[in-house]
Amino acid sequence: MGYEISGQVGLVTGANRGIGKSILEALLKAGAAKVYAAVRNPSSVSGLTDEYGDKVVPLELDLTKPETIKTAAQTASDVSLVVNNAGVLTSTTVLSPEAIESLQFEMETNVSGLIRVAQAFAPVLKANAGGALVQLNSGASLLNFPQFATYSASKAASYSVTQALRQVLKEQGTLVVSVHPGPIATDMGHEAGFEDIAEPPEVVADALVEALSSGQFHVFPDAIAKGIGDVYQDFAQNVIEAEMSEG
Known about the structure:
This is SDR family oxidoreductase. Pfam families: adh_short (PF00106). InterPro entries: NAD(P)-bd_dom_sf, Sc_DH/Rdtase_CS, SDR_fam. GO terms for molecular function: oxidoreductase activity. This protein is an alpha/beta fold. The protein has a single domain (64-240), classed as Rossmann fold (3-Layer(aba) Sandwich), CATH 3.40.50. 47% of the residues lie in helices and 13% in strands. The chain has 8 helices and 7 strands, in the order E-H-E-H-E-H-E-H-E-H-E-H-H-E-H. The chain has helices at residues 18-29, 46-52, 66-75, 99-127, 149-170, 187-191, 202-214, 223-240; strands spanning 9-13, 34-39, 56-60, 81-84, 132-136, 175-179, 218-219. The chain has a 7-stranded parallel β-sheet, sandwiched between helices. Strand 2 (34-39), helix 2 (46-52) and strand 3 form a beta-alpha-beta unit. It is globular and about 45 Å long.
């Protein structure tokens, strides 16, 4: 069962730039009545509020600060769609002296942040007929890239948590979507050195809107991600997405 965006209220973390900004704009284009731009610094979305007026609502939310997430959930009590897009990346190898510190930093945002968002907003989504929760994972959730070893590990963990959320939130009628982009032309992509192979963030936003409509769990939006997804598809359908029980 899919999720109908038109007329609904959404929330996007990290909505002030890159993929998050493109997702917010794609939701509005698809007919969302309003989207909360959940960011660390609400003033950073002034350009969006200038363009879209009261359809964009700035909201403070920092994935590493639980109190801001709880407050955001109380303020945005009308949301039926939560897109957790915000994340961090370091260029750290396993043998880097700072590997442990980098992993802790990325796990705190990319994994603990997801759990905090899910815990805060699951009751809100339930109260609003179930809705949908979207997590921006990565191609690195499935394949560890040595130059981004700790980031890849954190995204593998966030993907694992997303799988658990799919099962748990199904009971309250919440659709869960896991998005796995490859190199995307964002500030993060630029810092990672992906300029020559990166695709525009709109590719991710458009694929997400389509996935919500169709109700699919895995989304591989760009060409490189699709290559990974094509190989992974059989396992994903027969193991990850299959109805299985423990024991």
